[in-house]
Amino acid sequence: MFWGNFLYLSVNMWGDAPPIFAEELRFDDALWVELTEKMAADGLDLLVIDLGDGVRYDSHPEVAVGKAWSTERLRDELTRLRQLGIEPIPKLNFSATHDAWLRQYSRQVSTPVYYEVCADLIAEVSQLFDTPRFFHIGMDEENAQDQRALQYAVMRQHDLWWHDLLFLVDRVEQAGSRAWMWSDYAWRNPEAFYAKMPKSIVQSNWYYVDRFDVPEEGRPRVLEYADASLCYLDLEDHGYDQVPTASTHTMLDNFADTVAFCAKRIAPERLLGFLQVPWRPTTNQYRGIHLAAIDLVRDAKAAFERGGAVS
What we know:
By secondary structure, this protein is of the alpha/beta class.
């Protein structure tokens, strides 16, 4: 079971216009090294890297921002991470809510050009990562509410959402990796999710606050965010492999609470690991929260391995 952290290379997944969208990479090299070395020292052994437009891909250099990493730079960093004992996992978020990094292709969703570009990028990233064990494809929050601040809003629904999801998963699997995604589609679409979602896809429900109680009168079928911790139980009931995901985004106790809740309720053979997601750029402005996020994983891991309470 792994203990993972998440770091941005690019942050152009949160808006399609300045100041949120940046034409140049927002990234601090020294902080990246400090954080990854601390991860290794503190016993964290997996890193999800949100790549976006932070790499000048050979297949589609037109999506890269200024100061994006070369593919050679990326390969060097992946080698360094592995030497530290950290397994690097790529993430390209193909949710229509978080795909501004695709630039012009984010306005061509579900067209032949879009499918070709997504396939090219998955194939190239898989090769750059030497066929990673997992490949995170995002796919969260694709709805009108979460796009209300975007200049260009588009969402796939019903059969089209499923078609595109399965297209992406197929390309990941053709490249030799296992697809990994966020699970929030299940909150409001449980019937379709549990009928159609392949068990081959690793599921990461995400929940960042402190309501982990299970109602005595039975769990609601359709979940809102306040109830989203219950999605861990629904996924377990349906036999999905999971990586529960916590964050420092709202409160610092969330990672320990997530471990305590899920370790008791998810079968060990389906609990692949835990993931911490600070949701802050890899810049010195957020150094403190990044360091704290790693500390929280270290402490929860130690408590889990002792077999005692996580606090």
